[in-house]
Specification:
Blueprint lengths: L2 E3 L1 H11 L22 E2 L5 H7 L11 E5 L5 E5 L3 H7 L5 H7 L4 H6 L4 H15 L4 E2 H11 L5 E4 L4 E4 L1 H8 L4 E3 L7 E4 L19 H9 L4 H8 L3 H6 L5 E6 L2 E6 L3 H5 L7 E4 L11 H4 L3 H7 L7 E5 L2 E11 L2 E8 L5 H18 L2 E7 L2
Parallel strand pairs: 1-10, 15-16
Antiparallel strand pairs: 2-4, 3-4, 5-9, 6-7, 8-9, 10-11, 12-13, 13-14, 14-15
Length: 372
């Protein structure tokens, strides 16, 4: 039996699943945010910390969270206690998957007869041996270049030096037992305390941390093709690991699947009209069916720009505009580009969010402006 749902039900379900309807400060600690099961990308000046804040988390996240390169080789925040299981859950499903995730790095490895998974294991082993104390990315790259063979290396023309390809470098780091030190640029890698080194184990994946299930929990309903795009994985591998406990869904006539346990929540999601200033890489915006969230093409181009991506102004589960921070010294302005007329209530909500963001950044809010 196929369950029919509307776009409105889907967006309300996702909004609630990601806990964006929680009030500020209602989470007991940062680890109480459910979307950490999938990981929160830490990109941009406010990063994962602001994504947690708009989901009700307190300001201090230092004791319970850790940062690692995982999905799409991007830095993601997780609960520190989950890191070993995250390494298994986010590992490639197959050698073909590993080859796809490392992009152009796979070509010379394949020509040399080195399976991509074996290459990642080899890189992880060397990285583990190199990092005995906190090590900057540049020093790590130079040390790896001296140890790895030609198929692993490329000439970086901008800096006129030979480096390891970027994707294997990043994807091997967590399996080497290495985390990223927060707020470092260039990144500094350091050993995770108590890590038992076993790169790319074939251990059982924790269902709670499984990214396929995670996508369905927080962005469902979805299809294998959509989830594969999110993971940079082959559709074939995603289909092979597709959960058995799913229900077929029709979203305004489009076929998809949802975890069976979430069907009731999808059919009757709670309504919410909270105003949120979402960061450019907030989890709510990381979905791959962008047309569903933002039907208007011009608005999608405004929000998901290749460079200089703005944040999103959300009213409940609907995106109604974009925003950008404007800073001058310690003075801070939020510039809003509305896609529609904003009511007085919504503008008040934007003002409140702007003040909270200024407090979060430790700057003085001078106002909220509208882009011309």
């Amino acid at each position: 039996m196929t369950v029919a749902v509307s776009r409105a039900q889907v967006l309300a379900f996702r909004w609630h699943a990601q806990q964006l309807d929680r009030r500020p400060g209602t989470a007991s600690d940062a680890a109480d945010c459910a979307v950490l099961d999938l990981g929160i990308q830490n990109t941009g000046p406010d990063g994962a910390a602001w994504a947690l804040r708009v989901r009700g988390a307190p300001a201090d996240t230092s004791n319970v969270l850790a940062l690692a390169w995982t999905l799409r080789a991007a830095p993601h925040c997780y609960r520190r206690a989950d890191l070993p299981a995250v390494a298994v859950a986010t590992a490639p499903f197959s050698d073909a998957d590993a080859g796809k995730r490392i992009f152009d790095a796979n070509r010379p490895l394949k020509a040399a007869g080195i399976p991509a998974s074996d290459a990642l294991r080899a890189v992880a082993a060397e990285m583990r041996d190199i990092v005995r104390e906190p090590t900057g990315k540049g020093a790590m790259s130079a040390a790896l270049a001296a140890r790895m063979g030609e198929p692993y290396l490329r000439l970086c023309r901008p800096c006129n030096a030979t480096h390891l390809y970027e994707m294997p470098f990043r994807l091997a780091a967590l399996h080497a037992g290495l985390e990223l030190r927060p707020n470092t640029s260039p990144p500094v890698l350091e050993r995770i305390p108590g890590w038992e080194f076993a790169p790319y184990t074939d251990g059982e994946r924790d269902p709670r941390l499984d990214p396929i299930r995670g996508y369905l929990r927080f962005f469902g309903p979805a299809t294998p093709k959509i989830v594969a795009a999110y993971l940079d994985a082959p559709v074939k591998d995603v289909k092979a690991h597709w959960p058995g406990d799913v229900t077929d869904v029709s979203i305004d006539g489009e076929a998809a699947s949802i975890l069976t346990a979430d069907v009731d929540a999808l059919l009757d999601p709670p309504a919410d009209t909270s105003v949120r200033l979402l960061g450019p890489f907030d989890p709510y915006l990381q979905l791959k069916d962008r047309e569903l969230l933002v039907p208007d093409e011009a608005s999608r181009k405004d929000l998901w720009r290749p460079l200089g991506r703005p944040g999103a102004v959300a009213v409940g589960d609907e995106i109604v505009g974009s925003w950008r921070p404007r800073t001058s010294g310690r003075k801070f302005t939020v510039e809003v580009t509305p896609w529609q007329n904003l009511t007085a209530k919504v503008r008040t909500g934007v003002d409140e969010q702007a003040q909270e963001l200024a407090d979060f950044r430790g700057v003085t809010l001078t106002g909220v402006t509208t882009a011309e």
